[in-house]
Write a structure and sequence with these properties.
With about 210 residues, the protein is α/β, with parallel strands linked by helices. The protein has two domains: about 120 residues, 3-Layer(aba) Sandwich (Rossmann fold), CATH 3.40.50; about 50 residues. It is about 35% helix and about 10% strand. The protein contains eight helices and six strands, in the order βααααβαβαβαββα. The strands form two sheets. The protein has a four-stranded parallel β-sheet with strand order 1-4-5-6. The chain has a two-stranded parallel sheet with strand order 2-3. Strand 4, helix 7 and strand 5 form a beta-alpha-beta unit. It is globular, with a radius of gyration of 17 Å. The chain starts with 19 loop residues before the first strand and ends in a 10-residue tail after the last helix. Bound molecules: magnesium ion (MG). The site of magnesium ion has 6 residues, from loops.
Amino acid sequence: MALFAPRGARREAFIRPQALAFDIDGVVADTMALFLRIAEKKHNVPGLKMEHITSYALEECLPISREVIADIVEELIHGTHDEPLPPVPGAAGVLSEVAEAAAPLLFVTARPKKGPILEWVLKTLDLDEASVDVEATGSFEAKTRVLLDAGKTWFVEDRLETCFLLQDAGISPVVFARPWNRKPHPFCEVASWEELRGLLDLFPGQP
Ligand SMILES: [Mg+2]
């Protein structure tokens, strides 16, 4: 399907904001950056960079034990970490524009717990609760059902395996390029929120 021009080429704004929903970790929240910071500060594992995370299976690509990884993931899920969770650059600005065109924004995360990440989304994006809907599915597989029920046909996601699940369910993934998804794939891809914004039909009817 030759729907998408290569990255860098001029593309049309073809995604209706009403049809789009968003993953959180790795797309809106720079969770891996926080992961590395906790690894360094709490577990004394210095010198790791985002580029070292070449897979979602962290124990396969990082020199950190399963126990330490599990400990950090627990902190992330419950929001008990001291260090702040940074947003991905550009996310807040673009999302507030999308919210103006198509509130409420739907975020679908595979996290098992909604409270801490909902609080973070509201605070970080500076949006009121009526403009934001966060669904925590507890599994990657359950994301498609939530999206289909909400009538969403596009989803911004950073985990390639999930993108294939979405495609099988008739939802078009937009891969948010990160070091852990650098494998060939047939999907639309963006490298930044600015680039994603260029795909959004935020002003229908205008040339
Ligand atoms: Mg993610």
